[in-house]
User: Fold these one by one.
Assistant:
Number 1:
Amino acid sequence: MSIAIYPGSFDPITNGHLSILRRALEIFDEVVIAVAVNSEKKGLFSIAERMEMINTAARDLGLKGVSVDTFDGLLVDYVVNKGTNVVLRGLRALSDFDYEFQLALINRKLSRKVQTVFLMTDYKWLYVSSTIIKEAASLGGDINGLVPMVVRERLAERFPALRARLEAAANRNGHGNSSGGGND
Ligand code: ADP
């Protein structure tokens, strides 16, 4: 059974992440989304909230072979402990390349057993990052279609400006907009 570990912050998960996940499931039997605990980078959402959003999004999409976990310490140790040797990462434009290249090389230095596999993002998610989503949402920008429904709801709970916009839209339409949900 082939298992890939997809590590990251996922603060929060976006349709870009989900696109990589769906495509990886065409290659691997199981993908473990491993939410990294980073004591220096305090996220918007707690690790438990991030994991809950990932689980809900994967379930809503009917994805099979996904599990969600958390880890701290060295990624390569975690990967080996999970009984596999594959790290999955997504690549957007050139901006990701430098960092991802460094990360893959240091992990290779730390363990020759572990291989990093990259999937190139679909052009639809090229500009989507958790950071840009949080920024837009905090200013009341509707991020509909860029994140799963559960994330949109959680962001609206956090950001009054987004909440006000969604409530105004719901009042106009009789109910809320539907969300685009991670299609490739
Ligand atoms: P990290 O803090 O480790 O970069 P992220 O949650 O930001 O964690 O990203 C996890 C992985 O998902 C990284 O490999 C990143 O390049 C990839 N990723 C993030 N957004 C997208 C996207 N829109 N399309 C494809 N891959 C993405």
Number 2:
Amino acid sequence: EQSKVYNFCAGPAMLPASVMQKAQAEFLDWQGTGRSVMELSHRSKEYIALAEQAEQDFRDLLSIPSNYKVLFAQGGGRGQFSAVPMNLQGRGKCADFLLTGSWSNGAEQEAQKFLATNVVSDVVSKEGLTAVPDIDPSMMSANSAYFHYCTNETVDGIEIDDIPDSGDVPLVADMSSNILSKPIDVSKFGIIYAGAQKNIGPSGLAVVIVRDDLLDSAMPEVPTFLHYKTMDKFDSMYNTPPTYSWYLAGLVFKWLKEQGGLTAIAKKNAEKAALLYRCIDQTPFYINKVHPDFRSKMNVTFHLPSDELEAKFLVEAESRGLMALKGHRIVGGMRASIYNAMPIEGVITLTDFMRDFARRNG
Ligand code: PMP
């Protein structure tokens, strides 16, 4: 009989159990208001206090310098695929892109609607494995509005730890699937954005960190609710924000602080990923083709020897409470997403199952 479920979904992903319990406990009556937090006006003093506290906790976690604004936006990660080029187009008619997988490609495709795009580099093969090359400055365009890359390719399982050097050109990063998984030096970036539904909270929200000199370079046609300057002026409440997602994000930030912040969670994340990659490397039955320097600590991808075995693996895994391990449809195989909320016990249960399955089917 199944007692416990571990959810390896890439997003919307599992949330910490204690966060869900707190949300449940105060679902009908938030802090004595006699109402659910989702029934409060976003302009009420209670809600504004909640929103400000969530922003402060987020700032504390990432040590965000004071010359950066934090925006709570609608439209998820893809909303920012459009918002970034529209908001920076006034700086130049071209932008540079590092392409490392499905999501950086998606961002580049969308940006083409608003400006010319220049591909600085694609992934390369290193010792037969997928790797990200160093940036060749001669590949960057003159008068680029920004340089865009994705710090963690959720579909492909590729993570870039080193921050590329884009010189004076503002660096823009899609951190949807690894934000808050480790400390980062925010001062190296012009804009950081992330859809919420992995390490932040439920979907419906994107968090955007914008250096203040980049707030006001938008093309005139930018929709007002995506305009960073307007968003900032109205404290992310130009239109009604996704209040419940914002609230839950606030609970997740508090939880992360209780865990010891990002240095502590990074250590746990590294341990979890090491366990899983060790299992893959020690069992020839499982294959991961990402170069060790670029293996994602959030989305661990692997293949089995055949489609039939992969189908069987998924059925057996689910019967043991190991859920949502199917890889993204465009790459196939398996994917274990092990964001902040995944306890190490989940990874141990998975690797025990993987070794056992390989023994029985190898
Ligand atoms: N960027 C990355 C890295 C992602 O993983 C995702 C979603 N999985 C997106 C962008 C798109 O996010 P959304 O579905 O919220 O638009």
Number 3:
Amino acid sequence: DAAKPAVSLKETTIPDKFCRFDQHPGYIQMQIINRGAEQLGVESPFFRVHEGLAGATTIIAGHELINFASYNYLNLSGHPEVNQAATQAMQRYGTSVSASRIVSGERPIHRELEHALARTYGVDDAVVFVSGHATNVSTLGYLFGAKDLIIHDEYIHNSSIVGAQLSGARRLSFPHNDLDALEHLLKERRHQFERVVIIVEGLYSMDGDFPDLKRLVQLKQQHRVFLMVDEAHSFGVLGNSGKGLRELADVDATDVDIWMGTLSKTLSGCGGFIAGESALVENLRHLSPGFLYSVGIPAPIAAAAIKSLEIMAREPDRVRRLRSISEYFITQAKALKLNTGDSRGIAIIPVILGSSVNAARISSALFDRGINVQPILYPAVPEKSARLRFFLSCEHTQEQIDTTLNTLASLL
Ligand code: PMP
């Protein structure tokens, strides 16, 4: 009888868990963690609402707190000139460019920003995507394929891992900052693949340390592979004028094949960019799906980033102040015998507390005492290295740091 379904619903053996979102493994895991936190009486540190600008201080639930949880490193987000540039761009172009750039979303301000980024890096060109995360996903997903190899530091950001997975390339990681291990991998595996890319970060966002770029450049030249540096956290932070790991390590811009960065940290907006040689940038601009099939960045955001670059170049003192206040923080923290791990003491300094419960508890106690710092819990880091992660800004004062560290030490 053709009208009858082949299998009646009653007969199906498909379990409920495959048909219900409340039985999704991620959702179940989240509920277990939330219940655990509730039983321990720890308030959730997530989705706290900031009521105004988040810089060295912030307002949460009507209270002003010292803030170490925002990556407004040079205090440019909220800068009056940045706001004014964004407002003017909004008045002229509106809040959306209403199309992908390739099909009528292009505005003069897009290329202006890309040229400014390319000039800052000293490379041919740059291309800006609507999200930093999407920049890595789309760039890696598009450039590499099944016959290629992606080798990355084990602490690389999720966006690069997702991009590597999307590419279908073989993916291998090496222990954090262990370039001997990387060299060994290259010697053993390079010849088995067509294109190979090494991915590292300019400043690791959980640990505040960075790789030996000079040696990476030697390795990449020796083994004929590409080198990609994600400068999400190092751009605006490292080097005397904030030009990133290249400036600090003193290598040529063209020694790195793919410079990646975000607009969401120092550059006071959101979005990401790739800077490098024309052949790379043109290829991504015409063919990478995250650029091609996505809207162009809003003009006010482009204007904010251009103005931020301008202020950064005009006022190198911001970078110097960020460095000196960071040095103060790490020196004082070490004097109090706090464990700052391998942090190099510039802009990102963790205090490792050894368990997720401990980190969540201490973050909560600091919050109650007027200090906002995010705990980083398992699985974002291994359980034994759960931590508080301090983001510094050039506006933090020694007094704020003394208050914070003394309060923290009194809680341990
Ligand atoms: N790369 C790194 C190293 C990051 O830390 C982040 C996010 N903080 C991204 C990429 C993604 O950038 P965005 O938040 O601008 O999307």
Number 4:
Amino acid sequence: MNGILCFYIEQDIDNFGSFYPYHIYYIQMNLLIVEDEISLSDEIRRFLEKEGFKCDEAHTGRIASDKIFSNEYDMILLDLGLPDYEGIDLLKEAIKNKSEASVIIISARTALEDRIMGLDLGADDYLSKPFSLIELKSRILAVTRRKHGLKGNVIRIGSLEINFNKRKVFYGAEEIPLTKKEYDIFSFLVLNKNKVTTRLQISEHIWGDIFEENYNSNYIDVHIKNLRKKLTEYLEGNFLETVRGIGFRFIDPEI
Ligand code: CA
């Protein structure tokens, strides 16, 4: 099981006291691409990875079935026409296994019955081939928003804006230049603002499964140090607190 994906947090993000549920994987989603056209599968993976998603691929139904059974995905992009499997059967299996993954069917089959059958079975959306990768991304984000009741892709704290769609942080109109890892760590701390986030939680969130092999908690401290340096130009006070022996806490400057 992928450690980064297994718990919910709730966060008040607007100025009116409303609570919006967030799931951590909104920042870092773990997708399975089930597609037997290898070049298309690769194209989707390359595009989505560039957009910050974690992707896994399965080019046959059997491999997809194994992967769905042994991993936790946030989303499955499912081609219905596979050489060894009916895509619809994979969908049924995923549902039977109580997979939490959202499913977007990507299929050349435009027959209305296929579409309706997929959606009736529990797929969240349906995209006919050929589709644009930009559209795929916005469907993925829309399905995720719907699933978790998110109303937008942005968190604002004072003049600070964390834009999950762009994966960027702004202060007013100015972008704060963060590296990918700095962004991942910072957005995670902001989602957990005013709470202590442990080093282990950060590692699991950022490195997922792999951290066990090459994990070194010094990495986190280095990133935190750089984050502080960059953010001090915009934020005042001890906004990024070290909680000795435990982890870190982002303190909402508005409190
Ligand atoms: Ca196919």
